């Protein structure tokens, strides 16, 4: 059987890291696409040259021609611009919307059967726009944010408790942004919910609240430290986990920006929810019941995403 084909649209910081991870994990052959001639070719060759040392069998090709993504099984989209210090994700809307149009048309023409994972910010609005421009089925287009946000939450919690992060699970809902909703009662250490751990004296409510806030601000913390660009190692790892679940039909339960039609009282809207990712793409939306406070936070988050989607429609008439 031929190896799967993984097209990475955008060969910047995340794109290059995605290519390296996909090759090391032997998920398939990699096409690295960018409009910046030389960058995708250079990164592909550099990573391919690590193959003999690392011992992976995967071919890598850099390109500026959409024809090269033909027949891709997975497309991961990072094309666009990242944040600079002081910028919010929403400041990227206008410029990245134009990029989504070009990318969506490229995917529609060349890789209409692919499972598409969007990473470009502002995430929830860009994945919606990318789906509109590409015309692919909703179940085949999703956005990476929840895996990253919950990984950040898990990392901070494991640090606080002094336990292996393997035993920490975390649950986040809502848009990728300042309004994301980390759900403490569904986040656990070896099955023990965080509110119980507070009662057991493992931490205090104040410390837990600070960790929740640090998770919400996780992207900005890295933007501030780097001074130029945004996080890329953890975002790439998170998207690779989603791609692997699709390619291997693992049916992992992963939070991602998915099209929700019916669940959570939403009709036809992209927002961060727990999903099952398998060979059918987003195979299921996992709907949990929310407390009054959680519902209020979720509604606020959905409201923020709705505002961005409306702004997209205002910028590009074809999205009306
Ligand atoms: P960067 O290193 O600048 O790479 C972006 C690449 O996109 C550059 O190589 C550009 O040349 C390329 N590009 C621009 N326009 C096009 C186009 N029309 N077609 C193809 N390629 C194009 O950025 P990055 O890799 O650090 O980040 C990429 C995106 O991911 C940004 O929008 C970030 O804000 C976003 N991001 C999202 C998360 C999430 O958790 C959702 C996390 C981190 C970054």
Please name the defining characteristics of this protein.
43% helix, 3-stranded antiparallel beta sheet, 320 residues, alpha/beta, globular, 11 helices, binds 3-acetylpyridine adenine dinucleotide
Question: How would you sum up this structure, described in words?
Answer:
The chain is α/β, with parallel strands linked by helices and 320 residues long. It has helices at residues 13-24, 39-48, 51-54, 93-110, 123-134, 146-161, 194-199, 205-216, 218-226, 233-247, 292-315; strands at residues 5-9, 29-33, 60-63, 74-77, 115-118, 141-143, 168-169, 172-173, 181-182, 188-189, 192-193, 252-261, 267-278, 281-285. The strands form four sheets. A six-stranded parallel beta sheet has the order 3-2-1-4-5-6. The longest helix is centred in the C-terminal third of the chain and has 24 residues, at 292-315. The structure holds 3-acetylpyridine adenine dinucleotide.
